[in-house]
Amino acid sequence: MTYENFLFSQLFMEHVENSNTKYNQLEYDLIFPHMIEHNELFKTSLYYLEMKSEYDCILDYLNNEVN
Question: pLDDT tens, 21-33?
Answer without folding.
Answer: 999 889 989 999 9
